[in-house]
Write a structure and sequence with these properties.
Elements: E1 2-11, E2 14-22, E3 25-30, H1 37-45, E4 52-58, E5 63-66, H2 77-86, H3 95-107, H4 123-136, E6 141-145, H5 155-166, E7 171-175, E8 187-192, E9 195-200
Parallel strand pairs: 3-7, 3-8, 5-6, 6-7
Antiparallel strand pairs: 1-2, 1-4, 8-9
Length: 214
């Protein structure tokens, strides 16, 4: 599968101009706040239409964008994880979907929280449940906006390694501000003021990276 794009999008005084191609594997998109990361992901997901240009999805049957996810405070964590099979999929939810949601919760070490209410979970626990929901969608193209928010300790590196493994045979794109995890990525895109300032191997990126993903 691959995604080819050449787009221009105006949002008030801000202009995003981006072109390139994404293939299988984990792609990281970095850049300062306001550089266009979220806008680019929403265009790739089809949630925003470019004002000029196009996006071509080849071999992509299901694409899912996950950013801010509203959750009722009394929802059980397993219900949130199951959103990856219900909210992001047109087919009815069955036993296999529940098993898949729990499998990804187990991978993120939150299955023991399955029956806990959302309001009782910490920020890091909530984030891992949301990531489990995203993975449970099993989309051909998965776009995650700041999935490492609220994660502490070694969980950022652990989540990125999970995403890198998950990206075998599919496309996964994440935005992040954390330079310590970029070695997990197969491809890196850097945005600056709405333009693609750099694209390539994260090992060759000029910004300092540490070894969280080695």
């Amino acid at each position: 599968m691959y995604v080819r794009f050449n787009v221009v999008k105006w949002l008030g005084d801000f202009v995003l101009e981006a072109a390139g191609e994404l293939g299988e594997g984990l792609t990281c998109v970095v850049g300062p706040n306001g550089s266009g990361k979220t806008t680019l992901l929403k265009i790739l997901a089809g949630l925003l239409k470019p004002d000029r240009g196009l996006v071509e999805h080849v071999g992509v049957k299901v694409k899912v964008y996950v950013g801010e996810l509203y959750v009722p405070p009394d929802a059980a964590a397993v219900e949130v994880a199951l959103a990856g099979r219900s909210r992001f999929s047109p087919t009815p939810v069955g036993r296999a979907d529940v098993e898949a949601a729990r499998r990804y919760m187990r991978l993120l070490e939150v299955e023991d929280l399955a029956e806990r209410r959302w309001k009782t979970l910490s920020g890091g626990q909530r984030q891992r449940v949301v990531i489990a929901a995203a993975l449970a969608a099993e989309a051909d193209l998965l776009l995650l906006d700041e999935p490492l928010a609220h994660l502490h300790g070694d969980w950022r590196g652990r989540v990125m390694r999970i995403l890198a493994d998950y990206a075998a045979g599919r496309g996964v794109v994440v935005t992040t501000h954390h330079g310590d995890v970029l070695r997990c990525c197969h491809t890196l895109i850097a945005l600056r003021e709405g333009k693609m300032a750099w694209r390539g191997d994260p090992q060759q990126y000029a910004e300092p990276l540490d070894r969280a993903c080695d």
